[in-house]
Amino acid sequence: ITGDVTNICGTQKAILTATGCAGTVTWTHNSSTQNPIQVGAGTYTATCTNSCGTSISSNSIQIQSGTAPNAPTITADITNICGTQKATLTATGCAGTVTWTHNSSTQNSIQVGAGTYTATCTNSCGTSISSNSIQIQSGTAPNAPTITVDVTNICGTQKATLTATGCAGTVTWTHNGSTQNPIQVGAGTYTATCTNSCGTSISSNSIQIQSGTAPNAPTITGDVTNICGTQKAILTATGCAGTVTWTHNSSTQNPIQVGAG
To answer: What is the pTM of this model?
Structure first.
């Protein structure tokens, strides 16, 4: 006996045919004498009967029944790629043939660039629904951040606060490798870089923080030290790298005209 198919799906039937019988074929599963015969899933044999008796059973044929497969599950080794880098997609759970919907490839693991990907699974009973979706994103090394500071001149133990903006990644301060943002610093010259999965930027703009101390007392001189009537003396302060303040009236003029005092 032979069958036209050995795998059937749903309500499909296989056709079994017995040959080499010069008599009456009897199918052992249901005693039918039709030949050929349509059958569902099962294991089948037949015998042949003539006036002298009945043969032993024929060869056995097994007809298997199946259904359309479940959707495969797809995974990616990475979901962010840089430049010409490729991601590897793998489909699992397909007892059949995987087909990637973006390019009809039937490889089970494929290398891909940026895009959104799904797959299906096909067997003799049909094709599954689409798998889960995976998005592969492409990027580049980031631009340099911009750094700003709240003050550029500090005194004693005072600190300046540096802030880096415009970094879609991790800020690294080049003077000490810190990734804090913002960061408090003393006197010095500072830059920063920005790092993401695709690399590290060039250095940012540079900011210099200067440190100072309270000034020395100025030296004041007068053009005259004795005045008469409404005469005025002219006082001049020197040696002040800042703003002179006259203590008698808080004036910041320099030089200043004064009366007796």
So the answer is: 0.56
